[in-house]
Amino acid sequence: MFRIKFLSIAFLASLFTLTSCSTATQEQEVAIYENVSISTIEEEVLELVNEYRVSEGLEVVLFGAVAYDFAVSHNEYMIAQGEISHDNFNSRSTDLTIKAHADFVSENVGKDFTTARGVVNAWINSPAHKKVMEGDFTYTAISVEEDADGVLYFTQLFYK
């Protein structure tokens, strides 16, 4: 039997930027997105999250390339550990806040799902993950990485 696991704890960090900082414009984020190559499953997760958000009357979240490397890095960490976690979220959140001039950062993680729909449905059915998906965010980045055994790890960062 296929065992599905996901962490039911989602973190929301309320971090404030300095008044001298400005946030990236949507045009800048879209331009950055054009320079980042994401996989088909990563695109599917983004599309499904946005479909869900629209169905709930929420705005879509744009791909934020500045967060992509943080998501990839966290997946690599989880693969090395052999388990999913929110380890080092405060550091990741702080670094993303500085680099993207974000006010709020949150993340969802998952493991052992074989499809984008599977992980997104699990997040929708988890109150903590669902709350993150429904949060007041402008940008997101999703990384899906495969370990040596073919197990998929998911990290999705949301920020505003």
From TrEMBL:
InterPro entries in alphabetical order: CAP_dom, CAP_sf
Residues annotated as signal peptide: 1-24
Residue stretches making up the SCP domain: 46-158
BP GO terms, sorted: proteolysis
Single GO molecular function: peptidase activity
Keywords recorded for this protein, A-Z: Hydrolase, Protease, Signal
Lineage: Bacteria, Pseudomonadati, Bacteroidota, Flavobacteriia, Flavobacteriales
Record bears the keyword Cell inner membrane: no
Protein name: Serine protease
